[in-house]
Amino acid sequence: MNLHSKLQQREAAGKPLRVGVIGAGKFGAMYIAQVPRTPGVHLVGIADLSPSNAKTNLGRTGWEPAWYGAASLDAAMKERRTHVGEDWQALCRHPEIEIVVESTGNPIAAVEHALYAFAHGKHVVMVTVEADAFCGPLLAERAAAAGVVYSLAYGDQPAIICDLVDWARAAGFPVVAAGRGHKWLPHYGQSTPETVWGYYGLTPEQAEIGGLNPKMFNSFLDGSKPAIESTAVCNATGLTPAPGGLEYPAGPVDQIPNMMRPRSEGGILHHKGQVEVVSSLERDGTPVPYDIRFGVWVAFEGETEYIRRCFSEYGVKTDDSGRYACLYKRWHLIGLEVGISVASVGLRLEPTGCPTGFRADAVATAKRALKPGELLDGEGGYTVVGRLMPAEASLAADALPLGLAHGWKVLRPVAAGEVVKWSDVAVDAGNTAVQVRREMEARYREPRRSAA
């Protein structure tokens, strides 16, 4: 609760946290927009495949050209300005940079960036949650071995969910469920970049004027992103999915306590300690009043009569029995909140969410029948959609993780709705991200790791 005062102390002492950002797209730009308004932080460098685009985004966020005019990283250190360039390796190697924010959105590249940063003694705030979803547990191990911190990015929903879960447990409440909201109807699972704008209520022309990426927006709509983010939450908190994955029950915020209780008590949960996503649409498409579409929540239990009486005395909205309650945030501010992670990692050496085991997986399933010779196009595309599965079920199925389901050629027919297996596609076994994932799978197949 005192991160701001600690940042002020670092500012006063002339010892700001020194940060590098890889990827200055939408998410990265949102964090960068807050840096000039945050004491005790020096953004030393930005690495982007297109420095000119990065500079354009800096202009959009209100940065003055003089602030990012440093000719090199060394010059940026001396002048307390920011260097913008293409060389992410130089940024990770620079001895003065302490924290790297990985915000490329490219999961395969993100793994390489994180490993290189660890090898050079840098903490990593992983914005690219797709990478965390398919190999985060091993990345966390590698970071710990290197003596650095690996963290989910606050502002993105997984880290905020982790924060709510931690709050409940630290206050002594058993967590019965936690998750996020989403606009969901079952047929959205077959949406493609060609159909996405109709579901969002936009014309293709309006989307183009707004510079909106149809594939990225479709990854949210079709359920891929909820599966990915729920995976990250499970692996960081110890919560687990239902055997069938996400159910997307619909309801307003004040009904979460009634929904998020065991089926034996009138709720929808397969088990206590479950991750779930609440829909803002009834199954007939009717909008839910006072929804949690853009927010996060945690449902917790009052185990004693005294605690439940306290709930009642202080007006806590509970389920009908008075036993289950929830806390929530109806909105999240995406990259505008990443500074919380930077401060927590830099000042306390504490992550804002970090995998502690392999408990869930976001796997690729065929969005339609796939034929040999086709190329997978990843989340939000035409070929595959993400499904949340328990990790042991994913391992048993030899499932291809969604974050790696891009660019590989299909080798054998896969029916619509079926899980895509490693053996169904021609994967480059020499790819770093593939190697890391396969190593993680091998570790968690070992009996001694199965309880992790």
Commentary on this structure:
- The protein has helices at about 5-10, 25-35, 50-60, 75-80, 90-95, 105-120, 130-145, 155-170, 195-200, 205-210, 215-220, 225-235, 255-260, 305-315, 340-350, 390-395, 430-445, and strands spanning about 15-20, 40-45, 85, 100, 125, 150, 175-180, 275-280, 295-300, 325-330, 360-365, 375, 385-390, 405-410, 425.
- It is built from 17 helices and 15 strands.
- The protein folds into 3 domains: about 5-155 and about 335-350, NAD(P)-binding Rossmann-like Domain (Rossmann fold); about 160-185 and about 225-330, no CATH class; about 360-450, Antifreeze-like/N-acetylneuraminic acid synthase C-terminal domain (Type Iii Antifreeze Protein Isoform Hplc 12, Alpha-Beta Complex).
- With about 450 residues, it is α/β, with parallel strands linked by helices.
- The radius of gyration is 22 Å and the shape is globular.
- Strand 5 (about 125), helix 7 and strand 6 (about 150) form a beta-alpha-beta unit.
- Strands 3-2-1-4-5-6 form a 6-stranded parallel sheet, with helices on both faces.
- The protein starts with a helix and ends in a 7-residue tail after the last helix.
- About 35% of the residues lie in helices and about 15% in strands.
Give a brief rundown of this model.
With 452 residues, the chain is α/β, with parallel strands linked by helices.
Q: Secondary-structure map with pairings?
A:
Blueprint: H1 3-12, E1 17-22, H2 26-34, E2 41-47, H3 51-60, H4 73-79, E3 83-85, H5 88-93, E4 99-102, H6 107-119, E5 123-126, H7 129-146, E6 150-152, H8 157-170, E7 175-182, H9 196-200, H10 204-209, H11 214-221, H12 224-237, H13 256-259, E8 274-279, E9 296-301, H14 305-313, E10 324-329, H15 338-348, E11 360-366, E12 375-377, E13 384-390, H16 391-397, E14 406-410, E15 425-426, H17 432-445
Parallel strand pairs: 1-2, 1-4, 2-3, 4-5, 5-6, 7-8
Antiparallel strand pairs: 7-9, 9-10, 11-13, 12-14, 14-15
Helix pairs in contact: 1-15, 6-7, 6-17, 7-12, 7-17, 8-12
